[in-house]
Amino acid sequence: QIDQDGLTLPERTLYLGQDEESEKILAAYRVFMERLLTLLGAEHVEQKAQEILQLEQHLANITVSEYDDVRRDVSSMYHKVTLGELQRITPTFKWKRLLDRIFHDNFSEEEEVVLLATDYMHKVSDLIRVTPSRILHNYMLWRIVVVLSEHLSTPFRDAIHELSKEMEGNEKQLELGKICLSQANKHFGMALGALFVEEHFSSASKAKVQQLVEDIKYILDQRLDELDWMDEETRRAARAKLRYMMVMIGYPDFLLKPEAIDKEYEARGGPRPRRGFEVDEKTYFKNILNSIAFGIRLSVKKIRQEVDKSAWLLPPQALNAYYLPNKNQMVFPAGILQPTLYDPEFPQSLNYGGIGTIIGHELTHGYDDWGGQYDRHGNLVHWWTERSYSKFLKKAQCIVNLYDNFTVYNQRV
């Protein structure tokens, strides 16, 4: 699928200088750009930084904020188009040549792709047409530099810290040991996860959490009968979605087998052989590049393959939980199934009040204005009747109106 992207700062409004805070961050970002370009030995750094920043500001002007209601209405964004149609929408891109090279394939003009930001892509195509190629090249190199600079020497990390201090108030840099642990976790997540699970999560706990989930799903099923605004057709579909909801707890089963973990990082054969994760014992930066290349090879090989609904997005040690609407799947890694949220020795009342609230929260994502757009199989299908959906939106607006009355640090909730 093809979507909007291209901004280095986390939110488009930071580029627009709409208030004093964003102006300060924008000034710090420009200083950061100039420092990195200088460290890389570039000439005319002020001019290049200004040109790249102006291009990003143009991109910010055509980017829709992720907090905008439009970005939550997946049905309105989702468009299947052929490569030929995509080429007509964005004539400055050479899509077939690009995709053929990335995927080592030969795509026809009738190949279908999902386009999630039609207006954005059309405007980006126009922007590319009027922007000098020198600036486009510098911008693309800058985007690579930003991603990789945290893995370079101390002066690069110092520059990143100065920007982080302005944006997030981080006074102290992470110690090198914590940086190494963070990177090992990022690049060898499942291997570290096996060690974490061995020490901190048992198969018995996995079964107990599964029972907690089933209990809370049962209560939600009962609560559906109490919704006087929901008609029977929608209620049946809601129950079906609950029954089909996949729940993954603790860790993937292969994690208990060391040879299976090794295979995650090994070379693979088949019609499109790929190299494994190649570790260079002398050069940290080379390992980062190898890891990125390995991840790209993993992604590329998935083209035309059926979606693996058993795949985990996070390693077991992640202190998080998530719901994926396009798989109708809830995932609770072992990292969040720890005290104080969960302990097999706690009274069940504490576990219901702790991890139970997280489970209930993730369950509701299957029925909110985002996850509710997907059916029991994870397909983007409108399964509500118009009558029930209209009443749902009306009741949701009541909650919005209520919280509109509250402010935190002079910001409306």
Automatic annotation (TrEMBL):
<keyword id="KW-0378">Hydrolase</keyword>
<dbReference type="InterPro" id="IPR042089">
    <property type="entry name" value="Peptidase_M13_dom_2"/>
</dbReference>
<dbReference type="Pfam" id="PF01431">
    <property type="entry name" value="Peptidase_M13"/>
</dbReference>
<dbReference type="InterPro" id="IPR018497">
    <property type="entry name" value="Peptidase_M13_C"/>
</dbReference>
<dbReference type="InterPro" id="IPR024079">
    <property type="entry name" value="MetalloPept_cat_dom_sf"/>
</dbReference>
<protein>
    <submittedName>
        <fullName>Endothelin-converting enzyme-like 1</fullName>
    </submittedName>
</protein>
<keyword id="KW-0479">Metal-binding</keyword>
<keyword id="KW-0482">Metalloprotease</keyword>
<feature type="domain" description="Peptidase M13 C-terminal">
    <location>
        <begin position="320"/>
        <end position="409"/>
    </location>
</feature>
<dbReference type="GO" id="GO:0046872">
    <property type="term" value="F:metal ion binding"/>
</dbReference>
<dbReference type="GO" id="GO:0016485">
    <property type="term" value="P:protein processing"/>
</dbReference>
<dbReference type="Pfam" id="PF05649">
    <property type="entry name" value="Peptidase_M13_N"/>
</dbReference>
<dbReference type="InterPro" id="IPR008753">
    <property type="entry name" value="Peptidase_M13_N"/>
</dbReference>
<dbReference type="InterPro" id="IPR000718">
    <property type="entry name" value="Peptidase_M13"/>
</dbReference>
<keyword id="KW-0645">Protease</keyword>
<dbReference type="GO" id="GO:0005886">
    <property type="term" value="C:plasma membrane"/>
</dbReference>
<feature type="domain" description="Peptidase M13 N-terminal">
    <location>
        <begin position="1"/>
        <end position="252"/>
    </location>
</feature>
<dbReference type="GO" id="GO:0004222">
    <property type="term" value="F:metalloendopeptidase activity"/>
</dbReference>
<keyword id="KW-0862">Zinc</keyword>
